[in-house]
Design goal:
367 residues; Rossmann fold; nine-stranded mixed sheet; globular
Length: 367
């Protein structure tokens, strides 16, 4: 682990930033230097509450404007969990100020916004990364090893994934994820980013040839004639004939299942985004067989349980801590890794195509 310390600024007192306060504290190579909100009292309240939950020794400054945080010389990297609708401006400002940027998803309202973000990060030689925590879990390379074993899975033919949670009435009245101005992609942006990313990862980031989408449920927004999706399904078709589907919902109870079907078996993971509480992250490899003996037709279960020793959250080796640790190491290397912006851009392209399809009679969008 690097002994150098990455000094973080948190730009927004969003709820997810509380979890990542703890992530930085556990990373070993990072520390929070300042938190900014639109008023100083809110930033101070955030700091006080986080200090009560996860105390850190260093004094942390509360700032009453985002510009003030970006202008500071004692900050190396900025974590930005602002709403998608207002994020791009601040990501570009941070990059132009020489700050490395870790952002929540989706990265922009559209591909054009993300292109502007990536251009700013490249021209200022700063690291860019989206906040997809499962990409930093040790379970992912373990699953990749299985998928690359042609005897266990074989050529991938089908990928399915779903991520949902059931929101209450208050959520739709007050949460930004029901606002066209702040989160125009609704559940597709908030949850679909993960399901799309998982499919792209399973396909080694090959892009689909075409994408379809359908809005199954939505809320109306006074800000736009377009509905904000609250339940969405999408499909991807790849050039080799492999297909992938994804389902996202604010109306169904907690579900985060992915299945990768191959010619010889299938891999299944039931908690691919937010691991179930515990010290081991699991998945299964399934090679069931159908045996026929004259009048006896038997489906034989052939399931192998696999796991990696990694805590689900709030631990030194948890995926969100690995994300901040990896990011800080890249900052210290002085050589930004373009892989992270490339896969974010591909995810954004597929998400935008799915939404465009849904708003155009569910016709396929070619990529």
């Amino acid at each position: 682990m690097s002994e150098r310390i990455c000094r973080w600024g948190i730009l927004s007192a969003a709820e997810i930033a509380r979890k990542n306060w703890h992530s930085v504290a556990l990373s070993g190579n990072g520390e929070v230097a300042a938190v900014a909100s639109r008023n100083r009292d809110k930033a101070q309240q955030f700091i006080d509450e986080c200090q009560m939950s996860v105390p850190v020794a260093k004094s942390i400054d509360a700032l009453g404007s985002y510009d003030e945080l970006i202008a500071r010389t004692d900050i190396d990297a900025v974590y930005i969990p602002l709403p998608t609708g207002v994020r791009t401006e601040w990501v570009i400002k941070a990059a132009n100020a020489g700050k490395h940027v870790l952002v929540e998803k989706p990265c922009g309202v559209g591909v054009d916004e993300l292109e502007s973000i990536i251009k700013a990060c490249k021209s200022n030689n700063v690291q860019f990364m989206d906040g997809v925590m499962f990409m930093h879990s040790s379970r992912l390379p373990a699953m990749r090893q299985v998928l690359d074993d042609k005897d266990r899975i074989g050529a991938v033919r089908r990928i399915t994934s779903q991520f949902s949670f059931r929101a209450d009435d208050e959520f739709f009245r007050s949460n930004i994820r029901g606002s066209m101005g702040l989160e125009p992609a609704g559940c597709l942006g908030d949850l679909g980013w993960y399901t799309i990313r998982f499919a792209l990862w399973a396909m080694n980031y090959e892009m689909p040839a075409e994408v379809r989408g359908r809005i199954l449920a939505s809320v109306e927004s006074a800000e736009s004639s377009e509905p904000v999706p609250t339940e969405f399904e999408g499909d991807m078709l790849f050039a080799n004939g492999t297909s992938a589907s994804f389902f996202n919902s604010f109306l169904c109870e907690n579900s985060q299942i992915s299945v990768v079907n191959g010619e010889n078996g299938y891999l299944q993971v039931e908690d691919f985004v937010l691991p179930f509480f515990g010290s081991e992250l699991q998945f299964t490899v399934n090679n069931h067989s159908f045996d026929v003996d004259c009048c006896r037709f038997n489906m034989q279960r052939r399931t192998t349980g696999c796991g990696v020793q990694e805590y689900s959250n709030n631990a030194v080796n948890a995926q969100e801590v690995n994300m901040f640790r990896t990011f800080a190491d890249l900052v210290h290397s002085g050589n930004p890794d373009q892989h992270w912006q490339e896969i974010a851009f591909k995810t954004q392209q597929v998400m935008e195509a799915a939404l465009a399809s849904a708003r155009n009679g569910c016709n396929p969008v070619k990529l």
